[in-house]
Amino acid sequence: MNLQFFMPTKIIMGDDCVIKNAEILKKLGKKPLIVTGSRSAVLNGSLKDVTKALTENGQEYAVYDKVMSNPTIDCVYEGAELAKSENADFIIAIGGGSPMDAAKAIALLASQDIKREKLFSGEYEEKVLPMVFIPTTAGTGSEVTQYSILTNDAAKTKTTVAAPFLFPDVSFLDSKYMESLSKTTTINTAVDALSHSVEGYLSNRSNVLTDALALEGISIIAEEFENLKNFTLTREDRSKLLYASTLGGIVIAHTGTTAVHSMGYSLTYFKDIDHGRANGLLITEFLKLVEKEKPERIKTLLTAMKLKDLAELEKIIMELLGEKEKLTEEEIMEFASIAIKAKNIANCIVIPTEEDLIHIYKTVFDL
Fold first, then answer.
1. Is the pLDDT of residue 296 over 80?
2. Is the pTM above the cut of 0.85?
3. Residue 329's pLDDT is what?
């Protein structure tokens, strides 16, 4: 058996884990830049816990709270300049996927000069500020990956900054920060986490360890389908979803994603459809494509979810996501032409053609 597995991020999960482990922050540096969005970290109490821990440690801090949904290149360069001007020597990211993705790029750009045209080149020195991540949604898994996903206007899509040294040093997982999330955000992020484990399981880079983690994450999320639909989630339910999300992140850190993400990025870039929702809209049609050549893999996925067929999964996901958006045929042709160029298209165990992508889009959006 040939196998490689690399997970350098220290994971600490539990109630009040930030406050209880404040000494870890003290060991990472003298002054962090806290990277977050404008509102949620204040509302859910995560920013208060972080600043309390830092104050008790006697550490100063600066805050960059301008991260928007789907962070831009301008955003991360601005954040990096603030980190340098404040002499920040480590980064604390608080939030969902957007602040965490931005934080990795900021930690990289604050440590070395990278021209904008080289940002997605992968040609970096192995220098980055230490990072602490605190996810406040259960979806992206970014707290345990080496990926920073940014809006790339030049390519009219989202593009990845990736390097082995971009894994966060420490991630704190506390489900209490998710209790105030809306039903829509909770569902979209859970579906995003599901897509990570499903796509990782259907990646040609998967192995026995990632498969085990993927199936664990898939089964946990499937157990919460009814609670998600009815929005009757307890703290324990949210803790399970957070755990499953982190498992999905560990999976894609090794396997990467597949065509679902490539196709979903256009829905987000052009139609402003939430990333997790975009993945959910597309995923069952992609699974139908894979099933034609790899029925045994799909059967295993369905078994993990205790479902009999893809039609049952499709019904559940569409009940969660609600009414679909409208696309034109011209949009579908453009989106497929962009998606087919993405690197993770070749990552699928069944590699789709551009015609396959067009068929998936048309079927999903009833054209």
1. yes
2. yes
3. 96
Q: Look at residue 306 and give its three-state secondary structure.
A: coil
- CA dist 8 and 144 (Å) reads 8
Pull the structure tokens for residue 336: 């497929």
| Tens digits of residue pLDDT in 75-130 | 999 999 999 999 999 999 999 999 999 999 999 999 999 999 999 999 999 999 99
Q: Which residues lie closer than 8 Å to 270 by C-beta, 6 or more apart? A: 156, 331, 334, 335
Q: Please answer whether residues 263 and 157 qualify as being in contact, where contact means their C-beta atoms are separated by less than 8 angstroms.
A: no
- CA–CA dist 203, 200 (Å, integer): 5
Spatial separation of the C-alpha atoms in residues 362 and 367, rounded to whole Å: 5
Q: Which residues contact 115 (CB under 8 A, 6 or more apart)?
A: none
Percentage of the chain modeled with pLDDT above 90: 97
Q: 16, 254, 303, 287: which is closest to 141 by C-alpha? A: 254
CA 214, distance to chain mean position in Å, is: 15
pLDDT at position 184: 97
Q: Are 270 and 264 in contact (CB under 8 A)?
A: no
CA distance 102 to 118: 17
What average pLDDT does the segment 287-316 reach? Answer: 98
Torsion on CA atoms 139, 8, 160, 302, rounded to nearest 10: -40
At what angle are helices 183-201 and 275-293 packed, to 10 degrees? 30
CA distance 246 to 167: 13
**Is the CB of residue 42 less than 8 Å from the CB of residue 14?**
no
CA angle 168, 172, 177 (to 5 degrees): 125
Distances (CA, A) of 145 to 110, 112, 170, 250, 331: 19, 21, 11, 6, 31
